[in-house]
Amino acid sequence: TETLNPLTLNRNKRAIERLIASERVDIVHAYNPGGAWSARAATREMAVWLITGASGFVGRHVLDAVKAGVEGLPRSETEVVALGRRRPTGWPERSFFAADLNDTSSLRQAVQTISPDFVVHTAGRTPPAPDEELYRTNFWATIHLLGALRELKKPLRVVLSGSAAELGPVDAAN
Q1: Per-residue pLDDT tens over the stretch 51-81
Q2: In this predicted model, what pLDDT tens digit does every residue of 101-115 receive, in sequence order?
Q3: In the sheet that 157-160 helps form, which strands lie side by side, from edge to edge?
Q4: Alpha-carbon distance 77 to 86, whole Å?
Q5: What is the pTM for the complete model shown?
Q6: CA distances from 21 to 2, 24, 77, 171 (A)
Q7: Which of 78, 115, 84, 79 minimizes the C-alpha distance to 97?
Q8: What angle do CA 169, 170, 171 make, to 5 degrees?
């Protein structure tokens, strides 16, 4: 039976949010106006977090922190997706997109599919990697990611992480 009772609609919305988050649902089909309202409300409010480099040192910690809960948002309203060359240990396959940040075609496709609201970019290399690899991995990969995100044409938040390695060698006396 169809209902437009606000309490029932909100209960259904929360159930749909949990289903979308746990099963990584891409399409919700509703058979009546009440179901359509609940589905639209559930998908409109869900925040999607994209973490790059999630199998690295910083990325693993960011992934754990975001997965544990974002202040002010119930976990059922947050989807966390990792993107990189390797899936983080123990991370669900359905919440991982394999992509090389220097492969602009696969990166664009992944970003379009994920359509994140928040991005924490932790992918990168540190010395002793050769200078050419540092530049390709840290500079160009970031440029490619930002370009793919710009193509979404939607507002989103991006955090770019870094380390002291960006400063170059530091004398032990300093």
Answers
A1: 999 888 888 888 888 777 656 545 556 788 9
A2: 999 999 999 999 898
A3: 96-98, 78-84, 47-52, 118-121, 157-160
A4: 26
A5: 0.70
A6: 25, 5, 8, 48
A7: 84
A8: 125
